[in-house]
Structure prediction request, 754 residues.
Amino acid sequence: MQSEVQTDNQPIERRGLLQTLLQHLPGFCFYLKPDAAFSTEYVSPGVEFLTGYSVADFIGERGITLFSIIHTDDRKRVDDQLIFALQNKQTFEMNFRILTKTGEEKWIWERGTGIWDEKENLVAIEGFATEFTETKRAENIIKERGQTLQNIFNFSPVPMMITRIHDGMIMMANEGAEKLLGVRKVDLIGKKTPESYFSKNERVKILDELTSHKKIINRETQVKNAKHKNIPCLLSIEIIKMNGESMYLKSFIDISERKQMEDAVQESEDNLRTVFEHTEVGYILFDQQQHIISFNKPASKFAIQEFNKDIKVGTHFINFFPEIMHEYLTNIITPVLNGKTASFERYIEHQEDNHWYYVKFAPVFTKKHKVAGFIMSIENITQRKRDNIALNKSLEIVTEQNKRLLNFSYIVSHNLRSHTSNMISLLNFLEREQSEKEKAYLFQHLKKVSGLLNETLHNLNEVVSIQQNLNTTIDKLNLHDYINQTIDVLNKEINSKNAIITNSVSPDCTINYNPAYLESILLNFLSNAIKYASPDRQPEILLEATKTGNTVELYVRDNGLGIDLKKFNDRLFGMYKTFHGNKDARGIGLFITKNQIDAMGGKIEVSSEINKGTTFKISFL
Amino acid sequence: MRRNEKICIIDDDEIYIFLIKKSFEAMEIENEVISYLNGVDALDDLMQMKKNQEQLPALILLDINMPIMDGWEFLFEFRKIQAEIPNKVAIYIVSSSIANEDKEKSKTFPEIVSYLSKPIELETLASIVRNTP
Prediction:
């Protein structure tokens, strides 16, 4: 064993220079066996200086191996690194601590490789180890750290440059800077900083700030790139020392995207604001405590116009409205604060015309779906409402006209047809009749029919003329006086029945009406009341009027025969309808009256009790 | 229709009544014709006949538009006594009304045999009389 080692050592020792070198090296060479313990085959004498153990300690039988003196904390790492290197047939290089013979901890740097035969079998491990002193370690760390910093600098997405202060020479630039400026690193480094990176003004300001503050942190500025495009960015400058010289470390944060988004947000906000201010609809935003946060012009216009109030930010919702609306609004707002929408239509009275508004409340939610407040929108719908009312009115008129037209067609069909069909039949008989006497008789009937036909046509003509005269003359008429005039006209009839007529209408009650119609209407109701008086009692007729707004309602009450309304209600105002078998009844009066009242936009209502009396209520618009 | 049975006309149009009677004459229908100008008069008379145990008309030609009591009211009242009448009465509505609702309404009265519009042709009148049992 001993001789073998000697033999192996011999060729090395023979080289005197190498031997001397090895003896004076602050380290040792080693040659290990590929056994499980990596036992030592050869180790150079420098090992004693480093470890305190002699060469013999390793080679001999004492069982010390280079591995066994490694600090227990580092053994696993060294073992792993070594095995990994051997498996991959790589050189290994590692730092670890050892414990010297005196128990001292020492840092060792070791580098080595495995040796393999032609059959790829590991035959030995050889290498060199030396002390890895504190300074060396520190240097190493600094070197490593420097490398790391270099890497961080180079690969950081943040554009960075280091420039020498005294001449502006670019010492370092990273990939980020390449990208930002659109210039390759090689074209940057070693060149002077181009003055065009910042505008003249900006450059002066930057230098001023540097002089006074010695650093710049996140200054919003613009850098001109190789394509002369201004890129908005945040600039930071720090003065650093590098190789003993003062440098500027400049870093840029590209905020063009953020800028674009900010601009877009600003723009859309501007647009919204424009819409908000120029819409016809008033908007008021309230917080959860129902205080005004903001409002637009139409809303403040509304408040001034309708309530003579200035809206102020911070005031309570309810103060916006007059007191009479408070309770109503409090009820409306409660569900809104619970996340529901609410709306109502309402008019505000004005002398000439009412103003209609559509008011809507919509809750405003936080991201967590809690009610943060609400928006109130106020829309003036006066015109819409007016149009609607006008539309409904014209629809009513059309419906009413249609009804009248249909009614009229029935009248025409019934009253004209009955006469014409009689005429046809009479003429048929007349044609065939032989007897002169009978002929004369038929002729007499024919004459009668033609007279009836003529009368019917006359009546129909009267109806048509009423319906045509919609734009007939309208005067301010004194109702009280007109009633008295009618009483005078009917004097004979009144006296003959000994009727008592009381005109209780106020002497200053006036209506805007067609004079001829009013005469006709009053004459009809009064003469009917007399005509259908009860023979059992003295006829009493009372005329009264009430006025509500522009509408006057005239009541004509009698104590006459009464009408069975259950039976006749739908036919009361029909043409040629008579109900009492009265000889004078032509069944045309109420029909004409009704048409006249309708034509003036009024109404007739009737209440009656058989053998007690009848009350007609006539509305004059 | 047997000779001794009566025909009743209820219509406020006197000339129409005259013409129907004239038509019967022309067709040599010799049944007795009774006529009324409104529903009330007719009803009163028919009630009296029933009371006197006279035979009621086998055929009634009824108008709708009449004063005091119109055709529908007459029918309504007549229904009340109809069950107590031993002979069957055929009722025809004869009206100058062209209102569709009248025609439709007539269908709701099972006692109405048919709805006829004025003027009635002689042939129609003849077949009505013929077909009345």
Remarks:
- Residues 1-9 of chain A have pLDDT under 50 and may be disordered.
- The first helix of chain A runs from residue 2 to 14.
